[in-house]
């Protein structure tokens, strides 16, 4: 830890800067210039006239907004293409079942219990990854099973759970249109992401 900020005022001021920095990092753009940000912050705080004309600022904001939108669209197209390619190849593997909706699954363990219905509430363990293997969510890692209505999850899960007898463990390969679609899910799951889950149906509750 730094001993640079020794007074309460310095520490609180640093905290304000940290919070602003975190907000900027979460809503950044390529080429963001921190010294320019600092200059704008200082000028505004001190009540100085803007060093950049308002017309120029508006034009710059518009240009950056256009660039961000274009980058997002390109990333979405790339994600959709990668997901489609993955699923096309995956469908050729032995043991992979493809349903009419486009959901793919393979049976790891076939249980012998009752199958849930659309109206059921279930208890599961799951491990969710992107197609590159990176984990985005896992009840297994948390060590705490998840409980939810079959009707209250993504469409791929809703379909798959009704195929699974209690005690089953399936691996699901979920196209984006049966997952979080064109919007994604916050910062965790980008738009047009195909997802892979290992789902163990523990019980119907």
UniProtKB/TrEMBL annotation:
<keyword id="KW-0413">Isomerase</keyword>
<dbReference type="Pfam" id="PF01346">
    <property type="entry name" value="FKBP_N"/>
</dbReference>
<dbReference type="InterPro" id="IPR000774">
    <property type="entry name" value="PPIase_FKBP_N"/>
</dbReference>
<dbReference type="InterPro" id="IPR001179">
    <property type="entry name" value="PPIase_FKBP_dom"/>
</dbReference>
<keyword id="KW-0697">Rotamase</keyword>
<dbReference type="Pfam" id="PF00254">
    <property type="entry name" value="FKBP_C"/>
</dbReference>
<feature type="domain" description="PPIase FKBP-type">
    <location>
        <begin position="119"/>
        <end position="205"/>
    </location>
</feature>
<dbReference type="InterPro" id="IPR046357">
    <property type="entry name" value="PPIase_dom_sf"/>
</dbReference>
<comment type="similarity">
    <text>Belongs to the FKBP-type PPIase family.</text>
</comment>
<dbReference type="GO" id="GO:0006457">
    <property type="term" value="P:protein folding"/>
</dbReference>
<protein>
    <recommendedName>
        <fullName>Peptidyl-prolyl cis-trans isomerase</fullName>
        <ecNumber>5.2.1.8</ecNumber>
    </recommendedName>
</protein>
<dbReference type="GO" id="GO:0003755">
    <property type="term" value="F:peptidyl-prolyl cis-trans isomerase activity"/>
</dbReference>
<dbReference type="InterPro" id="IPR036944">
    <property type="entry name" value="PPIase_FKBP_N_sf"/>
</dbReference>
């Amino acid at each position: 830890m730094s001993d640079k900020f020794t007074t309460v005022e310095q520490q609180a001021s640093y905290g304000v800067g940290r919070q602003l920095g975190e907000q900027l990092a979460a809503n950044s753009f390529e080429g963001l210039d921190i010294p320019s940000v600092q200059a704008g912050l200082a000028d505004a705080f001190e009540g100085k006239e803007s060093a950049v004309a308002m017309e120029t600022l508006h034009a710059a904001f518009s240009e950056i907004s256009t660039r961000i939108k274009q980058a997002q669209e390109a990333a979405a197209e790339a994600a959709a293409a990668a997901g489609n390619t993955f699923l096309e190849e995956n469908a050729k593997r032995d043991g992979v079942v493809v349903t009419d909706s486009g959901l793919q699954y393979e049976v790891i363990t076939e249980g012998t219990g009752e199958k849930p219905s659309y109206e059921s509430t279930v208890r599961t363990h799951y491990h969710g990854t992107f197609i590159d293997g990176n984990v985005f969510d896992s009840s297994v890692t948390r060590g705490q099973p998840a409980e939810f209505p079959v009707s209250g999850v993504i469409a791929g899960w809703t379909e798959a759970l009704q195929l699974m007898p209690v005690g089953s463990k399936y691996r699901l390969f979920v196209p984006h249109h049966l997952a979080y679609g064109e919007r994604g899910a916050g910062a965790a799951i980008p738009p047009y992401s195909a997802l892979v889950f290992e789902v163990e149906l523990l019980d119907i509750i």
